[in-house]
Design goal:
The protein is mainly alpha-helical. It has one domain. It is about 80% helix and about 0% strand. The protein is globular and about 50 Å long. The model has no long low-confidence stretch (mean pLDDT about 80).
Length: about 210
């Protein structure tokens, strides 16, 4: 139980961070309903689990190299910038009345991919999991597979549960939202993505090559 509780606390801390993923879940849930937001949240959790696996298996050493980090930051920043431009100048201009959207026609795989890509673009996600794995195996002393799976499983499940709550609350807003407000949400999401893209590119410029 101690391992689970520490995982839950760590998951809650991670869930409180506000970034592109947060706004993506909210925007998708408002525009396409709870289940669409849930699929995006699933993609985020799969991305987190993938990074945890890489880190714990030691494969992350490839990405801990400063030169590789710079390339990751440049690529991630460019893709995130492209997402931001799309939401600013394309998505915001062709918003339909979301109440007429056929939710059943939504492609779950596209939504999962959306969550996976947006969460996995930033090398800071990998850095976060590198630090968390170090704390878990070093400070907490979780060295067995069972302990590691329990701890990180609790984190991922907690984050996923909070993302589902965000999606559900956003879905409830559909009754008061208008196409105009949805357009504003798309613009806000685009601005957020462009800002984070800029931060990533600045981060890449400041990485020292060893």
């Amino acid at each position: 139980m101690e391992i689970v509780l520490k995982g839950i606390v760590s998951g809650l801390v991670l869930a409180l961070l506000i970034g592109p993923v947060f706004f993506s879940i909210i925007q998708t849930s408002i525009e396409r309903g709870f289940w669409s937001g849930a699929w995006v949240a699933a993609g985020v959790s799969i991305s987190d689990a993938f990074y945890i696996f890489l880190t714990y298996m030691g494969l992350s050493k490839i990405f801990s190299n400063s030169e590789n980090q710079r390339y990751m930051a440049y690529v991630g920043g460019a893709i995130l910038f492209a997402f931001g431009i799309y939401y600013l100048f394309v998505k915001s201009r062709k918003v339909l009345d979301f109440r007429t959207v056929n939710i059943k026609s939504t492609n779950p795989l596209r939504l999962v991919a959306k969550g996976f890509i947006i969460n996995g673009l930033s090398p800071m996600v990998l850095v976060f999991w590198l630090g968390t794995v170090s704390v878990a195996t070093g400070e907490f002393g979780y060295t067995t597979n069972a302990q590691v799976v329990t701890f990180f499983g609790a984190i991922v499940v907690t984050v996923f549960a909070t993302d589902l709550i965000k999606a559900k609350l956003a879905d409830k807003l559909r009754t008061v939202m208008t196409p105009r407000l949805v357009r504003v949400m798309n613009i806000v999401l685009g601005v957020v993505m462009v800002i984070f893209a800029g931060r990533l590119l600045l981060y890449a410029d400041n990485i020292r090559i060893h």
